[in-house]
Amino acid sequence: MTATQVRTSRAGEKLLGRVAFVTGGTRGIGAAICRSLASQGADVAAGYSGNTERAQLFAQEFAAAHPESHMSVHRGDIGSPEDCRRTVQEVIDRHGRLDILVNNAGITADRTVLKMADEDWRRVLDVNLSGAFYLSQAALRHMLERGSGRIVMISSVIGETGGIGQVNYASAKSGLFGLTKTLAREAAMQIQRSGNTNGIGVTVNAVTPGYIATEMLETVPEKVLDGLRAKIPVGRLGEPAEIARVVHFLAADASAYITGQIWAVNGGLDM
Ligand SMILES: NC(=O)c1ccc[n+]([C@@H]2O[C@H](COP(=O)([O-])OP(=O)(O)OC[C@H]3O[C@@H](n4cnc5c(N)ncnc54)[C@H](OP(=O)(O)O)[C@@H]3O)[C@@H](O)[C@H]2O)c1
């Protein structure tokens, strides 16, 4: 066996026996996160909101690529607190446990501040920020009972820099920083209090992708994309898998000492 093969087989067992719920897991960055977690041995539940055709296609492709991983798909609107609680419970009922929650699903409804409709403001906050809160709340309860868990938020570089025409999106994505840090503090405190110190603990972190080649960017005109590429030091858009590898790193038991942090993956955009 070569050194590379040894490394690969070890890496493939990091999440063996773990169950992950990835919202928006049926396409784009979320689908890459599902594949990456499965490649480390995890069983995966992928959430989606309404595109059942894409969810079925994802499930078929995933099953073919990862026959060893038990996977399921769960439909629900994370803009609804009830759907958030129901889908978390569905995952636990289906797989028997929930070790890793990735709050990945997100939407945009871009308008300049002066043109922003009340409904576009509310909807983006409901889905991108409140959804992550309700899902985390439901998952945290279960994780604290078990004494271990990982929560990862997929925020955005726009949460750090703001973005013209994206006041709702930027506000929601930076709101995730406060959510991440507060959850991280409370989770650590509860684990300490319970005395359930198994060395794995419950950690909460956020990842801030830069511009990543997914359907979300399809509405951006090619000329604007060229302008964006010119601003990215590495000179290209990112790939979904480049976000996913940071998520599986954070999800590992061995990442127990990393909590409340924001991980930028953006080709150097914010330097
Ligand atoms: N792409 C980028 O450049 C970029 C950059 C920074 C941050 N991000 C963030 O990364 C995350 C994933 O982005 P992406 O580009 O992969 O997105 P995407 O390709 O548009 O996929 C979105 C996924 O989220 C699901 N979803 C949308 N609204 C939902 C809702 N209300 N309830 C439940 N699920 C919902 C979709 O389900 P359906 O298929 O059913 O619609 C789909 O699975 C988002 O949070 C985004 O803000 C993306």
Description:
This protein has 271 residues and is α/β, with parallel strands linked by helices. It has one domain: Rossmann fold, CATH 3.40.50.720. The chain has 9 helices and 7 strands, in the order αβαβαβαβαβααβααβ. A 7-stranded parallel sheet has the order 3-2-1-4-5-6-7, sandwiched between helices. α2 packs across α9 and α4 runs parallel beside α5. It starts with a helix and ends in a 6-residue tail after the last strand. The N terminus is likely disordered. The structure holds NADP nicotinamide-adenine-dinucleotide phosphate. NADP nicotinamide-adenine-dinucleotide phosphate binds next to α2 and β2.
SSE topology sketch:
Layout: H1 3-11, E1 19-22, H2 28-39, E2 43-48, H3 52-65, E3 71-75, H4 81-95, E4 100-103, H5 118-146, E5 148-154, H6 157-161, H7 167-194, E6 201-209, H8 222-231, H9 240-251, E7 262-265
This protein binds NADP nicotinamide-adenine-dinucleotide phosphate.
The site of NADP nicotinamide-adenine-dinucleotide phosphate has 30 residues, from helix 2 and strand 2.
CATH superfamily membership: NAD(P)-binding Rossmann-like Domain
CATH architecture: 3-Layer(aba) Sandwich
In what range is the share of β-strand residues?
Answer: 5-15%
Query: What name is given to the CATH topology?
Result: Rossmann fold
Low-confidence stretches: 1-10
Helix coverage percent: 40-55%
Radius of gyration from the alpha-carbon trace, in angstroms: 18 Å
Classify the secondary structure makeup into a structural class: alpha/beta
Bound molecules: NADP nicotinamide-adenine-dinucleotide phosphate
Q: How many E-type strands?
A: 7
